[in-house]
Design brief:
Layout: E1 5-9, H1 16-26, E2 30-32, E3 35-37, E4 51-53, H2 56-64, E5 68-74, E6 77-82, H3 83-92, E7 95-99, H4 102-111, E8 116-121, H5 125-139, H6 144-158, E9 166-169, H7 173-192, H8 200-210, H9 216-225
Parallel strand pairs: 1-7, 1-8, 2-7, 3-4, 8-9
Antiparallel strand pairs: 3-6, 5-6
Bound molecules: adenosine-5'-diphosphate and guanosine-5'-monophosphate.
């Protein structure tokens, strides 16, 4: 059975890694492409698990040798997906999930238009700031300048949301995980005729509601909060104060948000 290629993009700190790891606990047969990067490992990251960490020289050598399906520079570092990840998933008949930025996603869509693309948005800038701070804190140190750099980059990335087939707003974690799972199961059903084991109508409804074409009303407050209207829009965030949002209230069942 042909595997499906899923592209997931999101501004840094939106909760993409959390969602992907929850999805992979619940749905089997989804491989994750471990990217190559020139950035240094963060926190508990291990070489070959979250990323393959490498030097700029080695990355350039691989690039020249045509190793990458796509690559991009993000926050001053290089990132790339090896073609081999796709070949291995295809050979195993597995779906493959790429966690890549908006530039890489555009390259993959141009080469493989059949890919399913999913964009994950944080609910608002303040929640994103809290998540960026929490993640940095868990990794040892919060550098506010880095948090604000990622926040201002977030709006630019969100402006590309129209390029994606599905849009998730990661507000309540359990709901966003269920939506991501529904998208994977619905695509397997439509493309491969794979039977959905439980509550198939509900699963298809949830996935359909996440289609970008059905999301305008749902996205309006998020786009407004990030200062994005129409095709253009750059913004300055006007936070009322410097305090964090109580993001944990958003997750009814899990006080501890899994990493
Ligand atoms: P990304 O991979 O998009 O950069 P992470 O998955 O590392 O983001 O999440 C950033 C931080 O936000 C982590 O501390 C994570 O536990 C937290 N987080 C993720 N999703 C939610 C959510 N729905 N509600 C509250 N916190 C969340
Ligand atoms: P981080 O360094 O926070 O893990 O990731 C920073 C950004 O790089 C995220 O938007 C992530 O999706 C993106 N990224 C990670 N791996 C790749 C990759 O292989 N290719 C591209 N284009 N972007 C990647």
């Amino acid at each position: 059975m042909a595997g499906i290629l899923f592209i997931i993009s999101a501004p840094s700190g939106s909760g993409k890694s959390t969602l992907v790891s929850e999805l992979r606990k619940q749905v089997s047969g989804v491989d994750f492409a471990i990217s190559w990067t020139t950035r240094a490992p963060r926190g508990s990251e291990a070489n070959g698990r979250e990323y393959n960490f490498t030097s700029r020289e080695e990355f350039q050598r691989m690039l020249d040798a045509g190793v990458f399906l796509e690559h991009a520079q993000v926050f001053g570092h290089y990132y790339g997906t090896a073609r081999q990840s796709l070949e291995e998933a295809r050979a195993a008949g597995h779906d493959l999930l790429l966690d890549i930025d908006v530039q890489g996603a555009a390259q993959v869509r141009a080469k493989l238009p059949e890919a399913v693309s999913i964009f994950i948005m944080p609910p608002n800038p303040k929640a994103l700031r809290t998540r960026l701070r929490n993640r940095s804190r868990a990794e040892g140190v919060v550098i506010e300048a880095e948090v604000y750099r990622r926040l201002s980059e977030a709006s630019k990335e969100i402006e590309n949301y129209r390029e994606y087939g599905y849009i998730l707003v990661n507000d309540i974690l359990d709901r966003a995980v269920a939506q991501l799972e529904a998208i994977v199961l619905a695509e397997r059903f439509f493309r491969n005729g794979e039977v959905i084991a439980h509550r198939s109508h509900r699963v298809l409804e949830v996935a359909a509601a996440c289609l970008q074409s059905n999301s305008q009303e749902r996205l309006k407050p998020v786009l407004e909060a990030f200062g994005i209207f129409g095709n253009t829009g750059q913004q300055m965030f006007n936070f009322d104060d410097d305090s964090d949002e109580d993001d944990s209230d958003n997750d009814d069942d899990n006080d501890e948000v899994p990493q």
